[in-house]
């Protein structure tokens, strides 16, 4: 797993190999079994954040009727950012669960700040990564809102085809804002 991090740091920074190795040695990589919750809806805020090295993590929430609504899937080389840790009275609005066995970099705010002070380029890389993620999320959301269900499915086929094999159809349908039956009809029509 550390090789993946080395490639990532080499790709996005000009840190020396020794600096990259020092950063990697300070990071905590944990394995999580399929079905493990990283956080549950209603839990107290966490100061942890995650970076997916291997596996798939699903973000979902229970709506007012108790129905699960999938809002995101995080796969390799994607960060899972948790923003409500500074609001101790606020509980988590969603759950994060491992869809597959996962290997994740697990960090907390304090350790990140310490590393940023020591390696300023790491902070720049993280900020750039977060800016890119936010821009991508905003663009995807804007496309999602104005797209038909069939167009949403086609976007998944084009941009994230791995999800078609990695997640159950009912979760993919929820993510796309449709019923599993509608998704089946769309898939048949396209094929």
UniProtKB/TrEMBL annotation:
Residue span(s) of domain Cyclic nucleotide-binding: 32-118
Identify the keywords attached in UniProt to this record, alphabetized: Activator
Q: Which Pfam family is an annotated match for this chain, by its short name?
A: cNMP_binding
Which ranges of the sequence are coiled-coil? Answer: none
The protein's name: Crp/Fnr family transcriptional regulator
Q: Report the source organism.
A: Cytobacillus praedii
